[in-house]
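Reviewers asked in the last cycle whether our approach scales beyond single polypeptides. To address this, we selected a multi-component target totalling 706 residues and predicted its structure end to end. The input consisted of the following lines:
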Amino acid sequence: MNAKLNIVPFVSVENMMKLVLTIGIERFIVELAAYIEEDFRRWELFDKTSRIASHSTDGVIELMPTSDGQLYGFKYVNGHPKNTRDGRQTVTAFGVLADVGNGYPKLLSEMTILTALRTAATSAVAAKYLAPVNAKSMAIIGNGAQSEFQAIAFKALLGVNSLRLYDIDPDASIRCAKNLAKFGFAIEICGSAQEAVEGAEIITTVTADKRSATILTDNMVGSGVHINAVGGDCPGKTELHKDILLRSSIFVEYPPQTRIEGESQQLSADHPLVELWQVMTGKAEGRTSAKQITLFDSVGFATEDFSALRYVRDQLQRTGLYDELDLLADPDEPRDLFGMLLRAEKNVGIIPN
Amino acid sequence: MNAKLNIVPFVSVENMMKLVLTIGIERFIVELAAYIEEDFRRWELFDKTSRIASHSTDGVIELMPTSDGQLYGFKYVNGHPKNTRDGRQTVTAFGVLADVGNGYPKLLSEMTILTALRTAATSAVAAKYLAPVNAKSMAIIGNGAQSEFQAIAFKALLGVNSLRLYDIDPDASIRCAKNLAKFGFAIEICGSAQEAVEGAEIITTVTADKRSATILTDNMVGSGVHINAVGGDCPGKTELHKDILLRSSIFVEYPPQTRIEGESQQLSADHPLVELWQVMTGKAEGRTSAKQITLFDSVGFATEDFSALRYVRDQLQRTGLYDELDLLADPDEPRDLFGMLLRAEKNVGIIPN
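The resulting structure, written as structure tokens, was:
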């Protein structure tokens, strides 16, 4: 009997914050991006499926499973835009990594913070292949919970050092700028989305409303930019005018999911979408000219969470930043689950009944 | 700011055992069965989907989500028959219950023990509607981890008091009999499946091999019995000879899933299957004659786990048998996830890097 078979390492929110800060946010994102890119490059190995969504009036709850044949991972994630009204997060998440060989979970982790980090890291990895060479300035439209992570990822991976912020709530832009103060950006807070995109080589849209909005209209987008469209990520939730899409080369994670959830839901089912993994592995071209508009229609795919869980797991032994969770029944004799229950009787204290 | 928004109640294996023993196994199963039956009766309310399975050489990992519009639940469960060789369980599981309105998890619970309890409770609920009137004797073929739970459920809900046990491993039968010693059954250990079914009014098959086996052949099954077929629960894993199915009235949980996973995978896609919820609500007939063979082709459906999680949640406040898990990020200002991370810096100790 292995006394630890019942235990699953658990990374709480507190330990995730300690982990990120111990490693350093920028280094964490750079290292995480390497795991994400590594998994995109072995894309064909993965068991891929669109996320399983349960929609309701106020939001959605999703499960995002995948496997590379050795490890299995899934994320639970919700999206409820009204949550901020009563002090809750729009998006919360947690995830599990498990051993395909025996089905036992190996890690349970908070993923609210980790999702923001992996989304930003994925955006920056895509931009490495798609953005104009030496792009240094980025507009961020939507300055909510994910905006700072995006900014730092683009700085760490591409050297972006100039930010143009816009949010319908000016306080959000001010807070974003304040949070980023010590990271060495030149930051301009703008009065409109139009103003924010002026001169920006990269445009990141990351708003939260669950509806078809037009954050960017066609006239706002000049030739040669890279658009990092993060906020359009479920049916009925888009941020870009369709005409922008028609002028762009569109790069995506997993087409069957993106056609349902991404900006590309506005397009016909046969509109060409380039798979990001193919660009990374040289099977498809990325940016081919300085005038081309490239668009990363990001919706977030299960492999990115898988990469993130793998990365976190690989930090545990060195840092010790986890708790031990008594999650799995481990009878002294494997087939004797009932006997284990009976023998636990001596441990039961007096509880009001 | 609500200081507890980050917390999700967690029921560990230890607390689940205490909960079951505090309530009493029989009472726990009876109360759980009432929740399961309640949810079957409001079947049409549920968002139903076949489980999402990830198959590998040695087993399967599955996610089983469902929702009644108010609550969302899912279970993670694996099935790896070879696990017992290195001291692990064939099946382990955990589950989550969440609030559909805001997507926040309300409960994380071990479900290895809970799954055995809910499977047994579901079998007994089905048998209440399908077994011969006043059936008192049951054969159990396969005396592994789930067998005692099945026995106790049938005693608690139907008054079954005579058991005929058979397992290819005689030690399993001996252990099962020993574990059940204080529960008031007359128990006979049999030398073959054939011997076990002689005179039994109910036949429970609950073996674990992941292959098409023939635990019951046609000549072994006499008229009038109720077959509770638990072990056949994934593609390629069946226990009954097809001829038995052709002589039986077959009752199932969710036909799209059962036709893939259950004994019914041996039948044509249009073979009639009766939905259990329709029997419970009077929309379909259950047992109609004393000579009829009824067969509950049990595969386990997400609503049963949902019911089990609901039941466990309803016991927490009174018993206090849970831990508080720091699973959800709860920034002082909801949109300021990054700021929360920055402000955590003061709490980070010295960790070898």
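The domain at 7-113+304-338 of chain B is CATH 3.30.1780.10 (ornithine cyclodeaminase, domain 1). We regard this as preliminary and will revisit it once experimental data from Aim 1 are available.
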